[in-house]
Structure formats: structure tokens, C-alpha cells
Amino acid sequence: MKSPFASRSDLLPRDAAGETWLAAVIAVLCFIACLAAVGASAADRAAQGWAGRLRAEATVQIRPRVDETGVTAAGRAAETLAGVPGVEEAEAMDRKTAEALLRPWMGEAVLPDLPLPFLVTVRLDPDAPASAVVMRRALAEAGLDASVDDHQLWRGEVERSAGALSALALAAFILIGGAAGAAVVYATRAGFQAQRPVIETLSLSGATDGAVTWLFQRRYGLLAAGAGAAGALGAALLVAVLRFLGGEGGVTAALPVAWSDLWLLVFCPVAAGAVALAAAWIGSRTMLGGRRLGVTLGRR
After folding, report:
1. How many CB atoms lie within 10 A of CB 57?
2. Spatial contact of 240 and 234, defined as CB atoms under 8 Å apart
3. Could you tell me if 45 and 258 are in contact, meaning their C-beta atoms sit under 8 angstroms apart?
4. Could you tell me which of 150, 145, 152 has the C-alpha nearest to residue 80?
5. What's the rounded Cα separation, in Å, for the pair 214 and 64?
């Protein structure tokens, strides 16, 4: 026979332990945890993007011969490199482009008189990139004096820094997510302590341990899941605003936010509700077990 207490959600007093405030705390922590998850995903995306761009690009400095101009030599180098297997595109950098790159660092006044090197930018095949040795050999066979920089000297440092950034973002998410989980556990335990007389009354009225446990699981599972959903929704709205403001690349290239990050937020209310269900089950079983032990000892 089904216990009549199992379907009665009104047996537990409402807001007996300040549940509204506890739900607000859980929602705020879930909001921060969701933002941390999105930040960790964006940081990892940015780190992978930095490393990928470095692996897919190279820069060639051309030293023209006495009988030709630098523009001509750079054009020949770009044409030569474009035919090298593993090179997708090679383009000579004109002076206007070079000045635009140096303007934030050098200022406008010195640029017209500043001697600039003749450069060729090379975009490599990401699947089978051409090595610096192969490109140097091709340039030498074409009679060009050039230096090839495939960023290998400092690519390792950038990749290590990118990995450290991803690890820090993940650690921040784990810490904040742990704090949110602790808040859910605290809310559930506080509810048990506040409603101990109710548990005693229900037990004396014939409610089974399973029915009492389910009452608390349903109450605090819904409380935590609702608070988690509110926090996730707030984070989703903020992420959407940042994505709209930033356009295709997100707010900034250093921390690109993507629409796919919103899928991470779906797990927040599920995780919050699951933690509350587990905490309610453990707490109710512990309390009911202690009550039965006390009754047994009292009879002895």
C-alpha cells in the first residue's frame, strides 16, 4: 500500500529555514559558476587559437640584391613560396601595411623616415605545413637572400602560457562550482535541522523513512534546481549580450565567447538538483537512523 505521506508536498512548512535567501545564494553562486565555465571554455578556445595561428603562419624577411628593389625581391619571394608544397598562400607585405603594424608602437612622426624590412607573410597548410628548411631551400634556389621565421623559437612559450591560462580558468570554475555545491548541501542540511520536529511528527504518525526522505528530496531538489536554472538563465543572458556586442569574434579576441558555450549552462540546474537530492537522501537517512537509535537506547 502506498504511503499517504509520499504525495503530500504541503507537509513541510514553507521557508522554515530562510529557504528564499538560501535559494538566492545558490542562484548567485550558480550564476558565477556558469560564467566561470564559459570563461574557461573561451580561454581554452583562445589558447588553442593562438597556438594554431602560430603553427599556421611564418614570416620571411627578404634582403634584395643590388640590382633589384626590395618590392621586386619580395614579390619574387612570395611567388616562389606560393609554389612550395605545404604553403597555402604567400603575400608580400607592402610598406603601408608594415607602417600600420608599427604605428601603435612607434608613433606617426618617425614612420616616414624609418627604414623597414621587406617581409613576406606565409600561411601554411594546417594539416601538412611546410618546414622552415624547405622554404629556405626554395628561396635559395630562386636566388633570394632571405631569413625564414616559423615562430618556433617562441611558439613553445606561447603554447605553455596558453595551457597555463586554460588550467587557471578550469581551476577557477572548479572552485566556484564547489562553492555552489557546498551552498546546496548547506541549504539542505539547514532545512533538516529546522524541520527536525516535523520529521519526528511524521515518523510518529506512521510515515515510512522512504516517504520522509522523498519529501525532503523533492523539496530541496526543486529548490536547488530552480535556483540553478535562475543562475544559468542570468548567465545565458549576459553571454548572449556579450556575443551580440562582440560580433563574430566575441567581445575580444583574447577571450572569444561562442554560442556553443550556452550548452554548458544546461548542466547547471541538473547538477544543482542532483547535489540536493544526494544531500537530502544522506541527511534524512542519517537523521532518521539517529532517531531510531535513540528510541532503541531509550527503551533499554
Report:
1. 15
2. no
3. yes
4. 145
5. 82
Largest distance between two CA atoms of the chain: 111
Rounded to 5°, angle at Cα 158 from 137 and 62: 30
The H or E element containing residue 121 is strand 118-124
Instruction: State how far the Cα of 206 lies from the Cα of 164, in Å rounded to an integer.
Output: 58
The dotted CATH code for 52-154 is 3.30.70.100
Burial class (CB in 10 A: 0-12, 13-18, 19+), 196: exposed
Q: Which three cell numbers stand for residue 106?
A: 612607434
Asked if 207 and 299 touch (Cβ cutoff 8 Å), the reply is no
In Å, how far are 45, 136, 183, 274 from 34, measured between CA atoms? Answer: 17, 49, 15, 16
Taking the model in full, what pTM does it have?
0.64
CA-nearest of 47, 84, 106, 36 to 264 is: 36
Q: 293: which 3 cell numbers?
A: 537509535
What pLDDT is stored for residue 21 in this prediction?
76
Q: Where are the domain boundaries for CATH 3.30.70.100 in the chain?
A: 52-154
Q: Return d(Cα 165, Cα 258) in angstroms, integer.
A: 18
Contacts of 38 (CB under 8 A, 6+ apart): 235, 239, 257, 261, 264, 265
The edge-to-edge listing of strands for the beta sheet with 118-124 is: 87-93, 118-124, 57-63, 145-149
> For residues 214 and 6, is the Cβ–Cβ distance under 8 A?
yes
pLDDT in tens, 144-157: 888 888 777 677 77
Higher model confidence: residue 6 or residue 91? 91
Confidence of residue 209 (pLDDT cuts 50, 70, 90): low
